[in-house]
Design brief:
Helices cover 31% and strands 15% of the residues. The protein has 5 helices and 7 strands, in the order H-E-E-H-E-H-E-E-H-E-E-H. The strands form 2 sheets. The chain has a 5-stranded parallel sheet with strand order 4-3-5-6-7, with helices on both faces. A two-stranded antiparallel sheet has the order 1-2. Helix 4 links the parallel strand 5 (116-119) and strand 6.
């Protein structure tokens, strides 16, 4: 088991953002990522697995050029973080209502052809998930304890509802994506504070 020193960010940073605090509801598909249930009845996600999956997710996304990546966030707490991530790596982003047919209707002026999609929450972002599945592109998703993961190709467990948690998650993804792309040195961080990712 890796030590705290080997985490992508210090353990305290993870804990203070609430990235590990799930919901009172847990699905069977998210059970492997749940460490325990706290006294308030909330699922507590395994920080080690969150950390591992964030790096795996960034490495997976780094196989694609920024122009081929689409980030989607219907959840308002994720808008700022998703937009900042997209801007810093050069990807396309939809926040708020996902426009119907944008991936499937070639007649639309807004039609785009991403090669991979990253969604902030499989439940509110279900329309984007359905579209991505229908055209056969891989789907990475930030998943909380209450999410079901069918149709998701890569699960990144985390609290996908809190602004501070989503800010930290997207900040880490930005750093790791740029490192795996060879744009950012392995021992450096982006010159943008986490606070700029938080709503």
């Amino acid at each position: 088991m890796a030590t705290a020193e080997k985490l992508l960010v210090p353990l305290e940073k993870y804990l203070s953002s609430g990235v590990h605090i799930g919901t009172k509801f847990k699905t069977k598909s998210m059970a492997p990522f749940i460490y325990k249930i706290n006294p308030a009845g909330l699922s507590v996600l395994n920080v080690q697995k969150i950390d591992e999956r964030l790096d795996i997710g960034a490495k997976f996304l780094a196989q694609f050029e920024p122009k081929d990546i689409l980030i989607v966030s219907r959840r308002e707490n994720g808008w700022k973080a998703a937009k900042k991530f997209a801007t810093l790596i050069g990807a396309k982003c939809y926040t708020g209502r996902y426009p119907a047919g944008v991936l499937t209707n070639q007649q639309l002026s807004t039609f785009i052809e991403p090669k991979v999609i990253l969604i902030t929450d499989p439940w509110p972002d279900k329309n984007a998930t359905v579209d991505a599945k229908s055209i056969g592109i891989p789907i990475a998703a930030l998943c909380d304890s209450n999410n079901t993961t069918q149709n998701i190709d890569l699960v990144i467990p985390c609290n996908n509802k809190g602004a501070n948690s989503l800010g930290l998650v997207y900040w880490i993804l930005t750093n790791q994506y740029l490192k795996h792309k060879g744009i950012l040195p392995k021992n450096k961080e982006i010159d943008v504070p986490i606070s700029e990712f938080c709503a």
